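hey so i finally got around to running the thing on that chain from the lab meeting. sorry it took forever, my laptop kept dying and i had to restart like 3 times. anyway pasting the input first so we r on the same page abt which one it is
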Amino acid sequence: MMQRARDIQGKAATGTILSVRDLSIDYHLRTHILHAVRNVSFDLKAGHTLALVGESGSGKSVTARALLRIIDAPAKMTGGTITLNGPNGAERLDLMKETGKEIRKIRGGRIGLIFQEPMSSLSPVRTIGAQIVESLRLHRNMSKAEAMAATVNLLRQVEIANPEQMADRYTFEFSGGMRQRAMIAMTLACDPEVLIADEPTTALDVTTQAEIMDLIKRLQVSRGMSMLMITHDLGLVAEIADDVAVMRFGRIVEQGPVDDLFHAPRTAYARKLLDSTLKLERGNKRAAPSTAGSPLLSARGLTKAFGATSWTGRTKFAITAVDGVDLDLYPGENLGIVGESGSGKTTLGKMLLRITEPSAGTIAWRPTPDAEPRNVTAFGKAELREFRQAARLVFQDPFASLNPRMTVKQVIGDPIYVSGTARGAALERRVGELLELVGLDASAMERYPHAFSGGQRQRIGIARALALDPRIIIADEATSALDVSIRAQILDLLLDLQKRLDLSFVFIAHDISVVRYFCDRVAVMYKGRIVETGPAEQICTAPSDPYTQALISAVPSPDPRNKRMSLRTRHTG
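ok and heres what got predicted. didnt touch it at all, straight out
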């Protein structure tokens, strides 16, 4: 392996390991043909990293899957060549049968693929070790004992603690970061020459993302692999890539060295993507609202413990997800809640609305700035219903949170109808007003959620949250599923709505650039506790708590001349 690494690094400057020419892929749909990929050409140099970037629907993942001949029906490759170079000469992957022995040897053998969501890519009914053993025995002709020893070694290489024990665990027993490490171990089992990483860190928080990308990069260098990285995160591109190809509507509109994209982009589309990223990085310079008056919403000592009980009724163990949290939300303020996955952010947001009942602590709400605070934790059904009209929730995944069998009019109009606010023509007028408020055409109300893009679906979710004229919006990762340009649009929309409707936001996120742009104050959570609170600019530039320092230092820099992930501080907590 090390000899191959030296050989590849020696010819990296001139050698091309994977060459794609004029690749075209069509989807033959019932009513028309969708040209998903059109005349795409690129070269992957030996030992280098090529980033394929673009917004959702640009054709990035379809292109990557075509390299391994695993595109799903009704998609069909209609033209182009895919050539894999090696010590035995060039092999035309496009000429191989999709189910033939030749391409099966390539998959996992010479080309490895890390999927975006490991939970849906790993079997839930087989142990992690059994899945890696199967790959090793299939491609490397090992005995069961040899494959098991190699599996343990691979898990150790991807820095999974206690690999002998963890090999016997199932997928659901791993955290998100550990699942991705297990997927990397499986991908590297057969020592591939080319690694395809399809959005490998999209669902991960910044510190876990930094650890995973650092691991992938170290393994790439030590093994002499080439990598095709698919992402819409330009910060990661700047940190990791050598070359970049920008895709839009199935075509490559710009490609070249990574430095050229960030400092001398040639196309308007590339400049738009870069401007959207830098806009969030620079932050929003709006004046923060005053915190001198009475808070609109307060929490004191808010705690939530989840326990498992035995058949005797005794608690076997308890996990404290939120531990004694105090926070205040002031009128017109955007309060950010940040932290790693599992820090308790979402549980805290649900407790503020009493979707999840607190184990201890109190929540106080003032319907108006001059009103006396009311104890939300003591509310009955009628009072809680009134409170939930004033405080609404915007979900992370706009597609999963919208009923696919309901029209947009029904989705947005449902809370209005249930509350008895409007009926018939008045309800329809209100839905039309809400759609126009969030930048959509009122005529779209008869369409279903699947007919909208991701950004449009999130606008529908926001319109539903605004249906009852709330004072407070709790946004739980409301932009994490969106492309960077759409993310900036949604954040600007929320800021505009806040100004027009006098809203206050509790904004839960793990994307520091989003929090810096949108929030006035930030509370940082670690293991259920708030470890630091302060103005957004201060938290994002000069944090005082060691955990916050580690969190901020893990954020990728959108400038290849100023890489910072490799220099980040680590929190040993």
